[in-house]
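step 3/5: co-fold with flavin mononucleotide
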Amino acid sequence: MGEGKLPRFARLTRLRKRDCLYTIPDTGVDMPGIAVFVDSRGGNTKKVAEAIAGELGVSAGDICGPIPAETGVLFLGSGVYGGKPGKAFTKFVDSANFAGTKVALFATSGAARSAETMLAKVADDLKGKGATVLGTYHCRGKFLFSNRGHPDREDLERAGKFAREVLSKV
Ligand SMILES: Cc1cc2nc3c(=O)[nH]c(=O)nc-3n(C[C@H](O)[C@H](O)[C@H](O)COP(=O)(O)O)c2cc1C
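step 4/5: write tokens
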């Protein structure tokens, strides 16, 4: 069947999958209970997501779709753009049902204060939606001529440590 003849539903599904930079496994969870979702335009926050996921033996996926049913701890991250998280991150936070969900937040930014402000606001929003926020982590991300080389090895090691600390609280 040619592309133009696909049923409407199949076309929609394809479009949605193309929106993701890389595909999340069917459930979005490849170790019981842990999901790592990230919204990263330039790849800096994706590196942090992969450090967290690697530390916990799972893989990271772009934010896409609802919270998988089996998720015990959701690591959720974004770059900071104009003081805010990315669009997919915001859409996800606005639309998903966080009641009873344990969340850990992470970000990269040009300036530390930007990430702190953004993460504090998101944490408040999520608490208002019934989530428990287990912790936040942020580090510098290269931006134009600043923060060259970041996130660097130390930033990523600290991200891994953060991941372990979060899990120790569960
Ligand atoms: C369009 C745009 C807007 C940005 N706005 C901010 C900002 O308001 N505050 C800040 O500290 N950094 C800002 N930055 C820098 C990013 O937060 C930083 O480069 C971050 O690491 C990007 O993450 P990413 O590579 O995962 O997309 C901005 C970057 C871009 C591209």
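step 5/5: annotate
The longest helix spans residues 112-128.
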